[in-house]
Amino acid sequence: MTNFKMFDIVDNASDHHFLGSNHKGKDCKDKVMKTIMKEWKILEQNLPESIFVRVYEERIDLLRAAIVGPPFTPYYNGLFFFDFCFPKDYPARPPTVYYHSFGLRLNPNLYADGKVCLSLLNTWNGQKIEKWNKSQSTVLQVLLSLQALVLNEKPYFNEPGYGSKAGKSSGQKSSLAYNEETWLNSCKTMIFLIRKPPKHFEEFIVEHFREQAQTILLACKAYMSGHTKVGDIVQDETSSSPAYRASKQFKTSMLDLYPRLLDWFASKGASVENLRIELKVLPKPAEEVVEKRKDVKSKKMFISLKKLFGCTKIVDNNPKISN
Predict the structure, then answer these.
(1) pLDDT tens figures, 35-66
(2) At a CB cut-off of 8 Å and minimum separation 6, what does 86 contact?
(3) Residues in domain UBC core (predicted)?
(4) Could you tell me how far CA 4 lies from the centroid of its own chain?
(5) Which CATH superfamily is domain 7-279 in?
(6) What is the pLDDT of residues 132-155, one digit of tens each?
(7) Which one is catalytic: 117, 187, 220, 311?
(8) pTM for the full model?
């Protein structure tokens, strides 16, 4: 990502979710302000390359972060935005965090209304060691937890009580289905972000999807063709996952979403026309081809048997023998 700082101080928080919070940044006590400034320094010096943060000069109590979806997950190359608000007594209490969901639920910890459930924020069940600690916890830890623990490879098992299903075939099947739905919602989120980008991230969003459009669309093609399970890295057209078959509902939804996603990428200068043409000749999954061949073979065998026994038609499963 060229020329886009990972951390920066900006001056306009007009679209921030917590802009109308009860207290203003200027009302923060000196001790709280100093603590927040320390947080700024930690973020500026330690952010990983996949997390970007903007803080506000006139609203020191607010912060916005963008997280790039990690590889090997159904969030890969997606963008996920979070607005933070520091309480008046920070760090005695953790910040409040809002997720820009656009009304979509793509993780058990991220609600469609923007609520973020995380032990470190004291909004999710967890052991004491996982809870917010005013002496040790930081915003950087929250961001890293969101990226690693929430946007993970198998988010289905984040749901309370579902962890016990991880070793069962039924649980794995449900997890694969959840990943399919998550990928669809992640792609829809991409479109929402392109249409209405959060302030101060407009150029970042355009450049990110312009650079990653080919990778994202190749993954879409591989996933909806049934060759590759959602979350696996797609290197080229030959990428595949053993013993995997995408659901018909997912393939149908993906085929509907794909052209719209491609059009939005193209509208921002992404070179994707080659993928538009290739979509017309999208190959069917090998499993569907085999099933179709089986159906044809069975039909031919049935016709042969009818001729052999002199059957002209089938009525109530009882063959009528011709004279």
Answers:
(1) 999 999 999 999 999 999 999 999 999 999 99
(2) 28, 32, 36, 60, 61, 62, 63, 95
(3) 31-189
(4) 23
(5) Ubiquitin Conjugating Enzyme (3.10.110.10)
(6) 999 999 999 999 999 999 999 999
(7) 117
(8) 0.84
